[in-house]
Amino acid sequence: MMGPGVCWSLLHAVASLLATGDLDHILIESTGIGEPLPVAQTF
Predict the structure, then answer these.
(1) Which end of the chain is more exposed for a tag (fewer CB within 10 A), N or C?
(2) Phi/psi class of residue 33: alpha, beta or left (left: φ > 0; alpha: ψ in -120 to 50)?
(3) pLDDT on residue 31
(4) Which residues form the CobW/HypB/UreG nucleotide-binding domain (predicted)?
């Protein structure tokens, strides 16, 4: 299960990318995660 620090790091990274305004899509690869639902629920 992902800890709260992982979700915060993910949100911070995505916010930084969005702040640049220079992207069309974001792909979050989650192959090593046993339960990807928490990642999806983050957004």
Answers:
(1) N
(2) beta
(3) 81
(4) 10-43
**In the block, which residue shows the tokens 């992207």?**
23
Are the beta carbons of 28 and 39 closer than 8 angstroms?
A: yes
DSSP-H helix ranges across the chain: 4-20, 37-42
Sign of CA dihedral 23, 26, 27, 28: positive
Q: Which residue has the higher pLDDT, 18 or 7?
A: 18
Give pLDDT tens digits for 20-33.
888 888 888 878 87
Residue 8 CA to residue 29 CA, distance in Å, equals: 17
